Amino acid sequence: MAHGVVVLGGPLADEERVILIMEGESESEIRSALSEDPWAVTHLEVESVDEWTIRLDGRN
């Protein structure tokens, strides 16, 4: 899978915020990929980029 690509995404319960699960080597790589999104200027506001350790994965 290419780095900096959204793996999973969807709205949170408040229907105003969205969580994106992305694969990347660093926060700067993720932010760079997000900055290239067409909505980066008008709709996309990155609140935080946090590392995540996957311990369970039922996907194939």
Overview of the molecule:
- The chain has 60 residues and is of the alpha+beta class.
- The chain has one domain (1-48).
- 15% of the residues lie in helices and 22% in strands.
- The protein contains one helix and two strands; from the N terminus they run ββα.
- The chain has one helix at residues 27-35, and strands at 5-11, 18-23.
- The protein has a two-stranded antiparallel sheet.
- The model has no long low-confidence stretch (mean pLDDT 88).
Features:
60 residues; alpha+beta; 1 helix
The helix/strand order is EEH
Give the helix level as a range of percent: 10-25%
Structural category: alpha+beta
Q: What fraction of residues sit in β-strands?
A: 15-25%
Query: How many beta-strand runs?
Result: 2
Large-scale geometry? globular
Q: Termini distance?
A: 13 Å
Mean pLDDT: 88
Output the strand order for the largest sheet. 1-2
Ranges where pLDDT stays below 50 over 5 or more residues in a row are none
Please work out how many helical segments DSSP would assign.
1
How many domain modules?
A: 1
The profile of the biggest β sheet is: 2 strands, antiparallel
- Radius of gyration of CA atoms, rounded to a whole number: 12 Å
